[in-house]
Amino acid sequence: MHLHKIKLTHFKNYEQQAAEFSSRLNCFVGLNGMGKTNLLDAIYYLCIGKSYFAGNDRNVVQRNCEANFFRLDGQFLRKDKKERIVAKVIPGKRKEIERNQVQYQRLSEHLGLLPVVIIAPFDVQLALEGSEARRKFLDNTLSQLQPEYLRQLIQYNKLLHQRNALLKRFTEMRTFNATLLTTYDTQLVPLGTYIYEERKQFLDSFLPIFQDYYHAISDGQEEVNYKYASKLHEHNLADLLAASLEKDRILQRTTTGIHRDDIDFTIGDAPLKRFASQGQLKSFVLALKLGQYQLMREEKGIAPLLLLDDIFDKLDGNRVTHLVQLLLERDFGQIFITDTDEHRVERIIQAFDTNYKQFKIKDGTILEGALD
To answer: What phi and psi, each to the nearest 5 degrees, are found at residue 112?
Structure first.
């Protein structure tokens, strides 16, 4: 699978730009703030239906522009079939995403059609921040692999929101009805159990893939591992919800369930977030994301797009060399790379030798051609 053409209108710092890409390697070079990452985000948006970097579509529309909308138009080739995806978004209104001129009724219908993996500098927060970032990684992967997982996750989150709202309402009205809460629990249990089992199965099968990639990037310098942390290992969700009823009432929120799960990362035998260097943290995240890519490719039967945003920063020369070798030796399909260092990009291009395109990005303008 690859993206052949893209057109951006009022997307972030792009007023109206278009580009045609190589089916193998595409490099975007420019200073910080010129729009390299925004171009990657536009590609991601067409694949997933939302921005990777902006939490709200209002932050995606071009600033200081009278037009309160943005439009993305992408032409893909997927399993020898052309797919045209168009996103037309007016913030505050229902976004419109079309596949071959037919509008989706639900965004969830689109997710998984065009698998994509993106690696960006702030992804080190997977290791450093709270559990939400790690659950997001799990859910992003499984939702692209399994439409049923996405459906049940959406339903679980909807019921969880309703249950939490009810707990707050009890406090406001100075009342409590355990029977009413049970109606939500009855629906949450099968959904949460399914999600837990899918996460567990995924993490079990994913571990050797992840460790293989880390070993390749680091040249075997460190051993890495992870452990799925969930109370559902020892107790079923129905019992957990019943046991936390009084705590939930006091705190006015649901304090147990798969929305509290985590992944404990380790390097050697120590917690990753406390003992890893910046290079080790970045290598760890790269291994997670490249493993995610491999699993998607195997499960979907097509090569996802691989979007690499400034990934060489804070990696020593040895790790950069091993990473480029990985990109060359393993079947990563179409790759998009951003970098501020033109000379480093030139070295990468020389390694790939053929079937590449390079673009200079300056002030929201995409210029194709050789680097100066």
So the answer is: 105, -20
CA 84 → CA 52, 73, 297, distances in Å? Answer: 21, 7, 21
What pLDDT was estimated at residue 372?
Answer: 47
The CA distance from 93 to 360, in Å, is 34
Handedness of CA 320, 321, 324, 325 (dihedral sign): negative
Question: Which two structure tokens, joined as six digits, stand for 61?
Answer: 């529309």
CATH class for the domain made up of 1-115+302-372:
alpha beta
CA angle 312, 318, 322 (to 5 degrees): 75
Min mean pLDDT across 67-76, 188-197, 287-296, 323-332 is at 323-332
Q: Give the DSSP H/E element, type plus range, for residue 333.
A: none
For 124-278, CATH gives 1.20.1050.90
Strand ranges for the chain from DSSP E: 2-11, 14-20, 25-29, 70-78, 81-89, 96-99, 102-103, 116-119, 224-229, 262-267, 270-271, 305-309, 335-339, 356-362, 365-368
To which H or E segment does residue 78 belong? strand 70-78
One-letter amino acid identity for 335?
I
Give me the count of residues in the chain: 372
Name the residue among 13, 16, 9 with its Cα closest to residue 46.
9
Task: Find tokens 């951006």 and name the residue.
Answer: 8
